[in-house]
Design a protein that fits this description.
The chain has ten helices and no strands. Helices cover about 80% and strands about 0% of the residues. The chain has about 210 residues and is mostly helical.
């Protein structure tokens, strides 16, 4: 295959998934923007008590930071997937749609945590939040495994090692988030903290993790 033909084919493959990425980026942007709505300005605060009133809002700030980082790193991972996925079909559109459905849901459990983290239902709120992570991790796996099976939708120049690295990193994602569910049932703040730690873990490129192992 000539270099000209190879470059032409690569360009065609990029165009094939460009609309999926553009639409997905828009959904991620909207979901991450909605999170800020849970941060409320304190009203009717006695003079000199503004700092105390702001500190009183720490559950909303905590859940905002956790969800912002989580969605942001999920966007990074989605981009990472589509550096390897170069073709599309109806199945890919379906699984990508399921993933985006779950992403747009994140602001809701975030709002629940912000509202109930100081209450007797804090552990239930954190468990609900962590269960959302389980669902998203499952959808990430479904999307990637569908695209990568038999190199079905991957670019011609994508190595088997690169594909296996990503599969390995995602494989235990649902189980990791189930751990967060278990921790949430014991301690709400610790459960959200586990979600934060998982976001950091998935921020690393899988090849980096392989080199560290």
């Amino acid at each position: 295959m000539s270099d000209e033909h190879r470059h032409g084919r690569a360009a065609a493959e990029e165009r094939e998934t460009a609309r999926i990425e553009a639409f997905s980026d828009g959904v991620f942007a909207i979901a991450i923007t909605l999170l800020i709505l849970e941060l409320k300005i304190p009203h009717d605060v006695p003079e000199g008590q503004l700092l105390a009133a702001l500190l009183h809002e720490w559950p909303a700030a905590f859940s905002f930071v956790a969800s912002f980082l989580t969605i942001g790193i999920m966007w990074v991972n989605h981009h990472r997937l589509f550096t390897l996925i170069r073709r599309s079909d109806d199945g890919l559109l379906l699984f990508n749609g399921l993933l985006l459905f779950a992403i747009t849901f994140v602001p809701f459990p975030t709002a629940v945590v912000a509202e109930y983290l100081r209450s007797a239902d804090a552990r239930l709120a954190a468990t609900f939040y962590s269960l959302t992570g389980v669902v998203i991790a499952i959808f990430f796996n479904l999307l990637w495994r569908y695209a990568a099976k038999g190199h079905r939708l991957l670019g011609d120049g994508i190595s088997q090692t690169a594909a296996e690295d990503l599969t390995r990193q995602y494989r235990f994602g649902p189980l990791f988030y189930l751990v967060a569910v278990g921790v949430s049932q014991l301690n709400a703040v610790a459960g959200i903290g586990v979600n934060l730690a998982l976001a950091v873990f998935f921020a690393f490129p899988p090849a980096v993790l392989r080199k560290k192992a």
